[in-house]
Specification:
The chain is α+β, with helices and mostly antiparallel strands. The chain is built from nine helices and nine strands. The structure holds adenosine-5'-triphosphate and magnesium ion.
Length: 270
């Protein structure tokens, strides 16, 4: 599948027709996921990004249709890529969008001034969490999240974790225990869903946009805190986590809640 998007002539018609005159160097820009991401450039027009995903691989990874819905809803609300085309052919989803200016938050251009980067990264998250969620069609509140994760268990996605002789009940119990540890009351905000440095763009010390929005939607802000803390630790160093929360305006995040959301993440994505 990975070689198909390289040659525009072998792409499905709706995608191909939008890529006329464009070419790609064939570099897959993906970071962690099993999707493939290519930049297409044109001598006169701005760049386009083509993201493809084989729906049979890792069902716990974000769906490109969900990303399309998120991009469309966010269009006039946050700096996100402009949606161009979504198409499904066989087992492959295709999403074409505009290229955002700047570099991601793990590029040396961005990380050379970690204090400023962390400040902008935190302010960016505040901006995301401040969106009004009234009309948002993407829902990651607990009432959707846990049935979705249950569906993954029932679909056999995590069967390789079941010890010999065990059943899926073991996984269900593990997930139930995590849910029970979360407060009943939710404080839903708009969440990015994968708020890490490779998913935020920067230019000249400013945040220029948000990408990789397949898990965006109404949910718990601690989901984004877990991703943000993880990426800061991994890409900048643990000492930048406290300045991040300071710049966000929350000096003392609830460590219990962090731990529980961390276990939600580990359950679904490990
Ligand atoms: N619209 C865009 N404009 C500029 N660069 C982009 C855009 N979309 C993707 N990229 C580049 O491609 C990389 C991968 O894209 P994206 O984050 O959407 O998918 P992914 O990394 O495969 O998903 P995951 O974060 O789950 O691993 C980004 O980190 C970024 O470098
Ligand atoms: Mg990404």
């Amino acid at each position: 599948m990975c070689s198909r998007p390289l040659d525009p002539n072998s792409l499905p018609d709706p995608i191909q027709s939008r890529l006329r005159g464009y070419s790609s160097d064939g570099r897959n820009l993906r970071t962690e996921s099993s999707s493939a991401v290519y930049l297409y450039t044109h001598p006169l027009k701005s760049g386009l990004i083509l993201k493809t995903r084989d729906v049979r691989l890792r069902p716990q990874e974000p769906d490109l249709l969900a990303e399309t819905v998120a991009l469309t809803w966010l269009q006039d609300k946050l700096p996100v890529p402009e949606y161009r085309c979504f198409h499904v052919e066989g087992e492959t989803q295709y999403l074409l969008m505009t290229q955002l200016e700047g570099v991601t938050g793990i590029h040396p251009e961005a990380t050379k001034d970690p204090a400023r980067l962390v400040e902008k990264f935190a302010q960016g998250l505040r901006e995301v969490h401040a969106l009004a969620v009234g009309s948002c069609p993407m829902d990651w509140r607990m009432s959707r999240f846990f049935p979705w994760a249950d569906g993954l268990i029932n679909g056999g996605v995590f069967d390789d974790r079941i010890p010999a002789g065990g059943t899926r009940d073991r996984l269900r119990e593990e997930l139930d225990a995590i849910r029970a540890a979360l407060p009943e009351e939710e404080d839903p905000v708009f969440t990015h869903g994968d708020y890490c440095l490779p998913n935020v763009m920067f230019q000249d010390g400013k945040l220029t946009g948000y990408i990789d929005l397949g898990y965006a939607g109404v949910g718990d802000r601690y989901m984004d805190f877990v991703s943000a803390s993880w990426t800061i630790q991994r890409n900048l160093g643990e000492e930048w986590i406290a300045p991040f929360f300071n710049a966000y305006g929350l000096e003392h995040p609830d460590q219990e809640k962090m731990k529980t959301w961390q276990s939600v993440f580990e359950f679904v994505f490990r």
